[in-house]
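During the no-cost extension, the postdoctoral fellow (Dr. R.K.) reprocessed legacy sequence entries with the updated structure-token encoder. One reprocessed record is reproduced below for audit purposes.
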Amino acid sequence: MPLKIAIVEDDSVVRNNLQAFLASIPEYEVIGAYPDAESALQASVFHHCEVLLCDLGLPGMSGIELIRQVKAANPQINCIVLTVFEDDDNVFGALKAGATGYLLKGTRPTRIVDAIDEIVAGGSPMTGTIARKVMESFQQKDVLQSEILTERENEMLVFLSRGLRYKEIADALNISIETVRTHIRNIYQKLQVQSRTEAINKLRGL
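Re-encoded structure tokens follow.
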């Protein structure tokens, strides 16, 4: 079964080019491409969609609010932001709303394909400057980090923020995957969260 993808982008040239490119890949099926959040929501495609590619600066409802509503309707959907905005408010606002990928416009089409495959596999693909911004937020030693999490658990969160999978973290730290899982479970329990995104947002203070 092909991977079902929806696109929400108000720039018709970007939208049409992206739709045509992704539709040319046999493993993908673009089930909808919309110029604004309202028309996308009205079409009700998100109940059947696996990946949403979404701009943030949309006319009418913002992309962040769209992501929030889409995730509420279908928590399993993977949301990738594709935008020109790289300020803290938009980056962490989108992550808080439920996005697990964040790419800047100008990203090569082949990288977008890699990001789609990565997010479906459990990763969090981000443009380099965005990933650095997220990582730097963890380098701010606040009370929550120092008092609740151990040094190794903070290290785990940095790897999670970079989108690494459990096996990649295990290889990087020369530990077993089960040890990684144990650390992640402890992090979630201490922070009272249930996902990677919630843990990142909690430490960011969102």
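Residues 68 and 97 are 5 Å apart (CA to CA). Residues 177-191 form the longest helix (15 residues). The remaining legacy entries will be reprocessed before the final report is submitted.
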